[in-house]
Amino acid sequence: MKKLLGLLICLCSLSLAVTIGDIYFDDVLYTFDPEGLLIDDSPELVIDVTGSNVNFNAFVLLVDGQNVLISDPSNYEYNTTEGKFKYQFTTQLAVGPHYFEFAATDDTDASSSNFTATVKANEVSLIDSPIPYPSPATENVAITYRLQKSGDISLYVYNLKGMMVYKERFSKGDSGTHVGYNEPSIAVDQWNNGVYIALVVGKVDGKQTVIGRTKFIVAK
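Predicted structure:
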C-alpha cells in the first residue's frame, strides 16, 4: 500500500511539471521547421504553458540572445485559467531570421523551448486559398483569406469576359490586411448574374503579385 501511495505521489508530481506546449505567432500555429516560420515584424507571441503555480516572474524570453521581458516588461501576461503566456512585440524585429528561447518555471520544475522565425521585408502571403461566402450571392459576398504576414492588399474581381468589375486597395493596418483571417465584403446586388473571379494581390519580392484567387457566383 505504501509503495502504491508513493507511486501515485510520484505520478502526480510528474503530471504537474511545467510544460511548454503550442506556440503561436499572431494566431498562426508554429511548426518546427529548420527554416522557421514567416512572421510579421511586430507579432503577438502566444505560448501554451501549464504547471503547478507557474511563476509569473520567472518567465524568460530571449530574442537573438536578449531578454525582451526585462527591456519591455509591460507587454507580457500569463493567463492562469487558459495556461497561456502572451507577449506583444512593440519594437519592430529586423528583416531576417531570429532565434527565440523561452523558459518557464513552476513549483516543481523548469522547462524551455527554442525556435526560429523569419521576418521578410514587404511581403505578404496567404496560408490557404481564399473562400467566397455565400456563393451563390445575391446582395453581398465576403472574400475570406488568411494572411501569414500583414501588408498592403489589393482585391480585384473580373467577370468571365475579362472585364474588371471591382477593385479595392487596403493599406497595411487597415481592415483586410491583418495577420490571420480577413473577410472584406463586396456589394453585388447591382451586378449581373454569372461567375466572377476574385484575385487577392500583395507585394512579393518587390512586385505586385497574385497571391490567391477564387471564384463565386452571383444569382438573383
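Summary: Residues 46 and 86 are 5 Å apart (CA to CA).
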